[in-house]
């Protein structure tokens, strides 16, 4: 028997061979001893030696090295006996469990993925050492020094290990001083908002104060940020040194020093635009150029001008146009003359569109919302508008379109979507001082079976009310520009002054006009039976006991260029509608309603996710012979003036019963900020103002202020809001409601 073995010494493989293997010989069979986690067939494939072949020392050396290179084994040795080649292996223990302590949950998976340590793989000292070094570097970059990382292993059986990684974060180094040596025009207080490493403030642990913790991975970027700050203020010749960090590890404090040569401030001289091929640039684009002659040079405005011109050229079909600002410095007079050099390159066309990320939504539902298709010119505006349109559907939490140039004039586009839950099932109990205990349930889906069709049903039962409805809405009939929606409803409610029992149906046919405009025509039929009228209402000219039928047409037009369905940060939504009642039936009136919503996110300006919102509502009714009380206008509650009970602000009769109004106007402003980003939970403050009346808008005027927790996309699948409102200027007899919640309603 001849034995050939490998010895692991200092990380290298030392092979010791008998002289009997010097000459080649035929191997009749190959066997493996010690395999646990891989099969002999796979091991034989890796070794590369097959029965019936001639082998020598070099062949066996190569086979052993191949096996060892797989990192499955701690040792491999070979013996030959009568033409049978036997590989003896000692497999590395397999990792059965990996525990990581000392880091946040959202960091653990990233750390383990980077290290390569995972369940089911062999334990590897190199991976463990890489993990420790990587963690130490990462923690230092975050400002933690002298961290300790221990890796312990526990044998579960002869071939399995449990790996325990314990991370003990070191001390934070606190920045006590940031020095700007040579700075004359600006001080630390001027630049601190632009840099990440700031010196410690008193009470730095408070929210909004600077804690002074060193962020080593941001030091290089801070140098660039300081230079950018100077360039924003016209100092084109500024020079900023690398940061010099002096750390004291006895008390973990540090000072950071930058050497700065400011130079002189420059103003803008001439501003010109030159396009290859003598193409002209529209006057409207020139008028929007930010850099102006005589003003202080600002590199941020320069970048905005470059983007403006790139977008302009892209919208003309030149998606890969190059815009290069040529800055000529007149150092004697400190003037910067700017010429924007535009090279259009060739027009670009869409070659192929790939949809990805949609496990539920059909491809055609996504494609029909795109404003570009194969063979058409590709423009940035088409891409941006397509992203907004897809996000407005409410089917996706994120949308990205990635263009990839495949030739001088063709691109492929990948439309990546991240689907969000569009269905909701809700059920619960409610209790009110008037209507007692209530039971409610609802089920809905905005994207039924991935078709883009919305369906829903709801039921609400309490001591005083019974409501139920079925609804559907198809925004794109057969993927066309036409939409169709409708509902069937039945409701019964015992109000303070009367009982109402009604049922009805409505249908709406609509059509898109362009990218943001939509028109529709709706029809409503409602059959209402009024009983148990109070004595004051029996003499009212607006409400008659008995059965009434409403048959009305509702033409409307809407405009929407917002960038998201649940949480818009940009754009506006405008709706104008008219309800003409009296196409048959008993009720005759005309109602005009306008609702305008406006959104502005300030993250780009403030580097903070602050969203400002505004809403205006105007509504008037013209009585054409029969205007029932339940069709009139009422102020108060969510959507108008919070802090007052829903619908309790309106003109009253002599007995104090609400008789409704013919005119109503409301205005709302809100400021929303993130509270828990991972949950998309937000906090907002608001101010509501409303007025209403019969002869004029200002017969009744009320306002309120308040704060709220808002969940634009709650786990229930719909928006959820809980708010506290303080009524302002309330009068005797007003019904107030300080705390309330809203489910399913959007701003």
Question: What do these coordinates show?
Answer:
The protein has 747 residues and is α+β, with helices and mostly antiparallel strands. It has 6 domains: 2-91, Roll (Ubiquitin-like (UB roll)); 94-168, Roll (Ubiquitin-like (UB roll)); 173-261, Ubiquitin-like (UB roll), CATH 3.10.20.310; 267-343, membrane protein fhac (Ubiquitin-like (UB roll)), CATH 3.10.20.310; 357-419, Ubiquitin-like (UB roll), CATH 3.10.20; 495-502 and 531-743, Beta Barrel (Porin), CATH 2.40.160. It contains 12 helices and 38 strands. Mean pLDDT is 86; it is low at 1-22.
Number of DSSP helical runs: 12
What is the SS-derived class?
A: alpha+beta
Tally of individual domains: 6
Instruction: Give me the CATH fold name of the largest domain.
Output: Porin
| CATH class identity of the largest domain | Mainly Beta
Average predicted local confidence, pLDDT: 86
* Percent of residues in beta strands: over 45%
At the fourth level of CATH, the homologous superfamily of the largest domain is membrane protein fhac: a member of the omp85/tpsb transporter family
* The CATH architecture of the largest domain: Beta Barrel
Low-confidence stretches: 1-22
Distance between the termini: 85 Å
Write the SSE topology:
Layout (H helix, E strand, L loop, with lengths): L1 E8 L2 E5 L8 E2 L2 E5 L6 H8 L6 E2 L1 H13 L3 E9 L2 E8 L2 E8 L3 H11 L9 H17 L2 E2 L2 E10 L2 E9 L2 E2 L1 E8 L6 H4 L27 H14 L6 E2 L3 E5 L4 E9 L5 E9 L7 H5 L11 H17 L6 E9 L4 E9 L5 E8 L6 H5 L12 H13 L3 E12 L2 E10 L3 E10 L3 E10 L8 E9 L2 E10 L7 E13 L4 E15 L3 E15 L3 H4 L7 E15 L9 E16 L2 E14 L1 H4 L4 E16 L36 E14 L4 E13 L6 E12 L8 E9 L10 E5 L4
Parallel strand pairs: 4-7, 8-11, 13-16, 17-19, 20-22
Antiparallel strand pairs: 1-2, 1-6, 3-5, 6-7, 9-12, 10-11, 14-16, 15-16, 18-19, 21-22, 23-24, 24-25, 25-26, 26-27, 27-28, 28-29, 29-30, 30-31, 31-32, 32-33, 33-34, 34-35, 35-36, 36-37, 37-38
